[in-house]
């Protein structure tokens, strides 16, 4: 969504992105309905607490558990390093689309 300058607070933008990613309209709407659930809010608070305890200072903040150790990564530019640490092949981001 960010690469296409879409508003993440606009439900229509979120639903369009979900469908563009291959999610059915039914599943996308079901997911969107969870946004206001109290259980969803409590889970967000719990996970935010874990992030803060691990030193998070921005998003995305990624915790990788590997061989009994926790490695932290901040930012999408660290995904290739994350892939290396967990032993996965990094095939790169999606190709940007252009209307030019």
Gap between N and C termini: 19 Å
Q: Please describe the biggest sheet, giving its number of strands, its sense, and whether it closes into a barrel.
A: 2 strands, antiparallel
Runs with pLDDT <50, length 5+?
A: none
- Overall geometry comes to globular
Kindly report the average pLDDT value: 89
Secondary structure: number of strands: 2
User: What is the count of helical runs?
Assistant: 4
* Computed Rg: 16 Å
Question: If you had to describe this structure to a student in words, what would you say it looks like?
Answer:
The protein has 100 residues and is of the alpha+beta class. The protein is 43% helix and 12% strand. The chain has a two-stranded antiparallel sheet with strand order 1-2. Strand 1 and strand 2 form a beta hairpin. Helix 1 (11-20) crosses helix 2. The protein starts with 10 loop residues before the first helix and ends in a 14-residue tail after the last helix. The mean pLDDT is 89.
List the helices and strands and how they pair.
Layout: H1 11-20, H2 25-33, H3 38-53, E1 61-66, E2 69-74, H4 79-86
Antiparallel strand pairs: 1-2
């Amino acid at each position: 969504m960010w690469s296409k300058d879409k508003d993440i607070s606009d439900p229509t933008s979120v639903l369009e992105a979900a469908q563009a990613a291959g999610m059915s309209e039914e599943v996308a709407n079901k997911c969107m309905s969870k946004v206001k659930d109290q259980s969803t809010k409590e889970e967000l608070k719990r996970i935010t607490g874990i992030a803060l305890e691990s030193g998070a200072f921005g998003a995305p903040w990624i915790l990788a558990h590997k061989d009994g150790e926790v490695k932290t990564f901040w930012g999408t530019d660290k995904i290739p390093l994350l892939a290396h640490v967990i032993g996965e092949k990094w095939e790169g981001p999606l190709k940007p689309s252009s209307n030019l």
